[in-house]
Amino acid sequence: MAVAMDPAQPGATPLSQTTADLENGTMIDVNTPSTLSKTEKEESIHDVDGQDIAEGFPADDPRNPYSWSTKRRVLHSLAATVAYFSLILGNAIYVPSVSFVVEKFHVGPTLSVLPITLYSLGFVFGPAVGTAFTELYGRQYFFKGALLLAMVFTIVAGNATTFRTLCIARFFAGAFGSPITGIFGGVLNDMWDIPRESLGTQMTVIYGAISVIAPFIAPLVGGAIIQDTGNWRWTFHLEAIMLGFSFLCNLFTPETYRPILLAKYYPDRPRAHRITIKDAIRIGFGRPFNMLLRDSINLPTCVLGGFYQAVLYVYYVAYPILFESTYHFSVYHTGLTFLGLMVGAILGITLLGVLDKRVYLPKKIKAEAQGLQVPPEERLLPGIIGSVLFPIALFWLAWTGRSSIHWAAPTMSGVLFGIAFIPCSVSLPLYKNEVYGASFGASAFAADTAVRFLLSATFPLFTEQMIRKLKFEWAISLLAFLSLLCIPCFLFVYKFGARMRETSLYKPGTTQVV
C-alpha cells in the first residue's frame, strides 16, 4: 500500500515531495515540456545487482523514454495505471458475490470465500516473477501477457459451471495478473525522473491513490453491478471488460526498460554483467526468501505489514455477515458501508502527509544542516500512531455491531480503521526502502508482498467460523487484542532498529549477497 508509489521500489519519490506537490495544487499539463536539462537526462544504467552496465542513452536519442514528449509519456503512464487499477479491483469485487455463490454451487460460507484466497495466493510469487524476468526480456512482454491471461481466466471464472472451475480460474487470474504490480512502478520510473519531474511525481500520486482506494471501493462496485443486473457473474464480466480495455490501451506501448533498449540499439557497448536465467531466479526468488530468514529487520516488519493487510481482508467477510445478517442490508447497501473505510484511508493519507511535513522533514533539514542523516527509524513514527488507533477501531466495530445499536456506529468505525490502516501499512515499506536502498529494495519489496498476500489469503478462510463460534464481538475483539501486540513491535524496531541494521547482511553497498 503505497502513497506516492510503492515505497520499496528503488527510486521511489520522497513522501515529502509528493505531499508538497499536492498541497501546492500542481496539476497535470501534458503540454508542459520536461524540466530536465539534457545533461540531467543522461543517466547511468544499472543491472539487477546495481552495477553499471552502460553509459546510457545520448540525451537527444528519441528512443530514450526520458526523451519522449510529455504528452506521450502521460498517455503511456495513464494506460499502465488503468491496467493496475483493473487488477487491484479484481479481488474484492467478488466480495458481494459470496452469498450467491453459496446458493448456486451449494458450498458452505467458508468455501465460498476460497476464490478470494486463491486470487490472493496468486500474488505471493507473481510480482517476484515479473520483476526478475523483466531483467531478461523487458517489461512490456510480461505486462501485456499478464493482462491478456488475467482477462482470459477472469472470463472463465465468470462462466464457471462448477465451483472447482471458479476457484482454479480465480487462482490463475491472480497468478498471471500479479506481475503487473511488480512491473508497474518500474514502468513509471522508466519514463519519468520522478524526484525532479513534477509530472512524474503526480503519476506516482495517482498510482498510490489507486493502491489505497481500489481495495475499499471494489465491494461497492461489485454490489452495484449485482444490484443493477441481478446477476453475480457480472462482477467477473465487468472485471474482464476492464482488463480487456486495459490490454488495448497498452497494446502499442513500446518497451521502456533501458537495459533491454540499450542492448538492442547499442549492442557493441560493454556490459559489466549480463543477466542470465540463473541470475534472475537467484535475485527474484532466492534473495527475498533469504532476506526473510536471515535478516533481523525484514521478517518482523513483513509479518507486521502482513497482519494489517490480512485484517483488511477479514473485513471483506465480516462486513457482509454483520450488515446483511444483523441489519438486513442488501448486497448493494453492504457495499456502501465500505465507503467509511475509503474515507478513512484518504484521511490516513492526509495524516501521513502532515506528519511527514511537520515532523520528519524538519528533522531531515536539521540533520542535513549538521552534515548528518535522519535515521530510517523516524519513518516508523506514523506507524506507531496508527498501531495505537488500529485496535481502537476494531474494538469499536466489535462492540457496536449489534441490532440494538444503529448501523451508523459500526460504519463510522471503518473511518478510524482507514485512518489507522494507511500509516501502519505504508510506514513499514517506506522504512525498508531507506534501510535497504536501491541494492536490495526490490528484493525486500518482493518478500513483503509475498508475506502480505500469504496472510491475506489465509485470514478470510477462518473468519466465518471464528465469528460463528466466538460471536461477532469476540471474534473481532480477538483481532483487536492481537493488534495490541503490534504496538510494542513497532516501538522495538523504532528503538533498536539502528543496532539491527548494523548486523544486517543486506546493508546498501553490500555486494554478492543472495
> Which spans have pLDDT < 50 for at least 5 consecutive residues?
1-55
Radius of gyration: 23 Å
Please give the share of residues in helix. over 70%
The N- to C-terminal Cα distance equals: 26 Å
Question: What is the quaternary state of this protein?
Answer: single chain
Question: Average pLDDT value?
Answer: 83
Order of helices and strands: HHEEHHHHHHHHHHHHHHHHH
User: What overall geometry do the principal axes of the alpha carbons give?
Assistant: globular
* Percentage of β-strand residues: under 5%
- Total strands: 2
Second-tier CATH architecture of the largest domain:
Up-down Bundle
Structure, explained:
The protein has 514 residues and is an all-alpha fold. It folds into 2 domains: 63-275, MFS general substrate transporter like domains (Growth Hormone, Chain: A, Up-down Bundle); 296-504, Growth Hormone, Chain: A. It is 73% helix and 1% strand. It is built from 19 helices and 2 strands. A hairpin with a 5-residue loop joins strand 1 and strand 2 (52-54). Helix 3 (70-92) packs antiparallel against helix 11. The protein is globular. Residues 1-55 have low confidence and may be disordered.
